[in-house]
Amino acid sequence: MSLLSDVLVILLNGLQQGAIYVLLAVGLSIILGTLKFVNFAHGALYLVGTYAGLFVALNVPLSNGKLAEWGFSSFGLDIGFLAALLFVPLFVFGVGLLMERYLARAFYDRPDTDQILVTFGLAIVVQELFRVLFGSNSLPFEQPERILSVGSFAGIPVSGPIALPIVGNFPQWRLWVIGITAVLVALVYLLVEYTDFGLVVRAGTRDAEMVRLLGIKITRPYIVVFGIGAALAGVAGVVGGPLNVVNPTIGTNILVPAFLTVVIGGVGSIAGAVLGGIVFGLTTAALVSFAPAWSQVGLYAIAAIVLLTRPQGLLGDEEVTP
């Protein structure tokens, strides 16, 4: 029973870690698969989402950085985690719209190397801006205890341990992260696959010139796609912030695993991004438990094996291989 319990704990931890990768990878995948734009600033959107979530949900003390030097002793509105979960994705969606309109659109017809250089440069600028403002120290992003607390209603507990069959006590918030990710990915999949908007986006991916000849302004759905991808990165920052350290380097740290998730799943495939995230999450959880020193190496080994045996990814189509 102990072995089965350990296996189930690793499975749940892997699904939770994979959920963060999935949120980032789905956004990356639809941007790369639809717009053919290599966005190395996607990690910066995750960084913005994390700090924005911290700002909305909590009020944390500041000890270094320019804000502290300017007399700000604390940072945050402290209006609750649910507010962060609602408003931060909208904010990052808006950031994504601006990024598409004033940066990405000018590089759609440029080589991939140009796209990589400009977006990676932007990511470094954003990281250093946050480092200047908040310093290099990590900020505490506490897990929410309850949500939907209204009047006499105490709210729904989302933190602390919950007793699960066989597993025993397991952190509730990890289960909420898995559930939130599943709902959001399902909504994005339905939007892309079963709506007129999704039909236009997919048609534009195949033949943008023909879509324009039909009188459809393809730039409008494209900018929305970019915004949706950005919003998913913002959600990942909000739900993943309480599970990780929060400092200016988190965006660049998670960028490579997110891109590897897209690569092994298949560019442009939402199902592939989900599968890739789960594979990476389970691999990380298993290696952290049994061989911590190899936890990062394992991700690159899996990516190498997949690329050697199936270059288009596990669920990718050959025509969208970058």
Automatic annotation (TrEMBL):
UniProt keyword list: Amino-acid transport, Cell membrane, Membrane, Transmembrane, Transmembrane helix, Transport
> Is Membrane among the key words of this record?
yes
- Localization terms from the record: Cell membrane
Q: How does it sit in the membrane?
A: Multi-pass membrane protein
What's a BP term from Gene Ontology annotated to this protein?
Answer: amino acid transport
What would you give as a GO molecular function for this chain, any one? Answer: transmembrane transporter activity
Q: Which InterPro entries match?
A: ABC_transp_permease, BCAA_transport_permease
Could you name the Gene Ontology cellular component terms for this entry? plasma membrane
Q: Where are the transmembrane segments?
A: 7-32, 44-63, 75-96, 146-167, 173-192, 222-243, 255-280, 287-308
Q: Which Pfam families match?
A: BPD_transp_2
Q: Its family?
A: Belongs to the binding-protein-dependent transport system permease family. LivHM subfamily.
Q: What is this protein called?
A: Branched-chain amino acids ABC transporter permease
